[in-house]
Each structure stands twice: as C-alpha cells, then as structure tokens.
Amino acid sequence: MSTTSRPSLTMTAIGLGNHNPRSTLTRGSMSPLESANTRATVAMAPTESRTIGAATTEVQIMQHQLPRHSRSDRRLAVALAPDSERAAAFRVLRHHLLELGKPQAIIVSSPQRGDGKTTTAINLACALSECNRAKVLLVETNLRRPQLSTVFEFVPPRCFADQLIIHRKDPLSAWTLVDIPDLCLHVGAVNPKFERGQLLDGPAFSIAMERLRLAGYDHIVVDAPAVLGSADVNLMADAADTVILALRARRSTARDLRAAMDQIGERKIGGTVLVED
Amino acid sequence: MLRREVNEQRERVGSLAASVFRAQIDASQKLAEQGGRLSVVDPAFKPVQPSGPGKTIFLLAGMMLFLTLGLCLALGLAMIDDRIYHRLDLDNLGIGVLAVIPPAAPFKGLKPVKKEQRK
Predict the structure, then answer these.
(1) Inter-chain residue contact B95 with A86, CB threshold 8 Å
(2) Residues on chain B bordering chain A, Cβ-to-Cβ distance under 8 angstroms
(3) Under an 8 A CB cutoff, do A271 and B109 touch?
(4) Percent of chain B beyond pLDDT 90?
(5) Highest mean pLDDT range out of A121-125, B33-37, B50-54?
(6) pTM of the predicted model as reported, rounded to 2 decimal places
(7) Structural domain boundaries of chain B?
(8) CA angle, residues A264, A249, A228, in degrees to nearest 5
(9) Which residues of A fall within a CB distance of 8 Å from B99?
(10) CATH fold group of domain A10-275
C-alpha cells in the first residue's frame, strides 16, 4: 500500500458504559511493517450498552491505529516519545489537574490561536488515559481550524460538529467516535471540510457534554477554539468543570491572558500551561 | 512740443546706456582672453597632517552614541514587552501554572523497515 493514502477505519457499534478501552487493546498485535505503514485496522469486539437511570448513551466506535512513521505529527509527544521530558511534563500537568478535584469535562483553550491548545489537549488526554485505566474522550470544538483529524491522520466517520447539531434535536441518538487503541483514547474530531462559517451551538454542546458524561467517560478533554475573538469558550464553559489556558512561551502576552481570564471568569479557570518551543 | 523733446532726450539716454553696457561686456571679454591681470596672493598648499579631532575620536564617539541609543531602545522595548517567557512571569502575575512543557526533542523518526522484513 502506498503510505500517502489515509488509513481506513472499521466500524463496530458498542455501548461504552461497561467498556474499558484497555480491555480490547490491540497494542503489539501489528507487524512492524503494518506499524510502519500505519495501515492496520482492527475491529473492536462489541459490548453491551449501559443504562444509567432512564438514559442510555450509545456510542459507535470506529477503530484507528495510530500512525507511527517519520512524518507523524510531533504534537503527539506522549504517544511518540513517552520517555521524553515533554511527555513527563504532560504527566505532571495531569497530576496537578487531578489535584483540582478530578474534573470530568476539561476545556483546553488559549487566549489567541497558535498558543498550543491542540498540543496540550491531545497530550493531556493521552496522559489521563495512562492513569488508573481511565476512560478518556478527546473532542474538538474548534470549528474554524480543526486539527485532530490531521494529527491522528484519519477522516472522521462523522463530523463531531454535525453530531452536535443532530444531538440537539435527538439527544438519544448514538454518538460516532474513533477509538485509538494504542492510546486507549476515544476521539471526536471535526471534519476539516466542515463549513467554517458555522458557529458553535452552546446548548448543543451542553447537551453533548451531558450525554457523554453519562456514557461513562472519566475525563472528556475538549480542544476548544481561542478565547479572544469569539464567545465560543464562554458558551462551553458552563458545561465544563474547568478551563485550562495554554500559553506559548515568548509569544503569548500578559495582556491577552488577562483579557481571556476576564472574558471567561477566573472562577472557571483551573490554571495555565506554558508551552515552550 | 516740450513733451516731444523730453521723449527724444529719454530715447537718447537709453541708447547711450545700452552702448556703455555693450562696451563694458566687450572690455571684460578682452581682458579674459588676454589672461587678465590677476595674481596669486595666497598660494594653496597641501596639509601635512589631518586637521580636526581625528578618526579615532569620531569612531569612539559614534560607537558610544549608537551603543547608548541601542541600549535605550532595548530598554524601552523590554519595558513595553509583556510577553510571557518563563514561569516566573506567570508567578509575578499571580496566575497559577499547572505545568511548563519543555521543547520537544528533535524527532528522529522510526527506524526504516528493511526489505528482508517486508518479505
């Protein structure tokens, strides 16, 4: 196979409630060639859906093997270089975050774009999934510049933004997410072809968070857009437990940080992460 | 009658003035052609040493001036620069820092798969 085409995905419908992603890990099952070419696709065994009270949150999972080649996105620090100092710093971030009271829904944003939101969100999610067999979901709400599908090198089976709109009308319909077994991580990504003019629907995001919390995830990490220049993070903040602000060293300014904190409200901000280049 | 005489006299004076002017021009041209009657009063001479403070002083003064200007510019820019460089900057702002993420090490990539393994 050519290494330029995107890996395919295999779809299996599951309910997430009793499902621990680690229980169906396929790590090490791929041959070196498959690993190098990132072509392996493994079907996940179906499990039963979980009912909490009267609410059932069904999640359809499509598995995707994390590509590991020389052109892999360097933002995947915890996944590609787990022994590095950078990966260790993200584990320190996880440790300090869990000290805040084990927040379930965590929004990762920044004052301006390009400050390291996606890097922080991805690696925080990876670090959280390493700890205590936690079930972690990484979703993207940056509709203007979606990145997750590019970083993980897959085409989302269903755009997460579209799913937000659908679930506002029908909250009980199933979610379609991508499972990355290597990282024990579920991902809800926005399709890069999503119409960029659309704005984030705040109530739809609140409904989504409510439903996904019921799905049994220990942590839901949200890769959000930048704070300044839009009110997207304000719309999302009420549905989340905490907001983390990523700052790019030698680029982010104190003025922007203050403005972002004033816009969101200091009560919601769990802390900042300084990302050095 | 008198007015006519006055006008005639005026024309005559004007023609005489023009004649005098032409004569002066002709005389100056002839003097120039003959080399004139100019003489060198104070001959020019080549200086034996440079005059003024000298290159070294100008060089030092210039260096000092631009060094001072550069320092002032750097100080001014540093004073208005509110970018965040280190954790200390956030600590000074009284903002909690959860973690500082160091730069990524250069990614060497994965080892190339040998052809034998492919088979």
Answers:
(1) no
(2) 82-87, 89-90, 93, 95-105, 107, 109-110, 112-113, 117-118
(3) no
(4) 56
(5) A121-125
(6) 0.73
(7) 1-35, 55-98
(8) 25
(9) 89-90, 92-93, 96, 273-274
(10) Rossmann fold (3.40.50)
Kindly report the nearest CA distance between residue A244 and chain B, in angstroms: 9
Classify residue B115 by burial, with Cβ atoms within 10 Å: 0-12, 13-18, 19+. exposed
Say whether the ipTM exceeds 0.85.
no
Residue boundaries of the structural domains of chain A = 10-275
DSSP per-residue string spanning chain B: -HHHHHHHHHHHHHHHHHHHHHHHHHHHHHHHHTTTT---SS-----SS--SS-HHHHHHHHHHHHHHHHHHHHHHHHHH--B--SHHHHHHHT--EEEEEPPPPPP--PPPPPHHHH-
Per-residue pLDDT, averaged over A213-229, amounts to 94
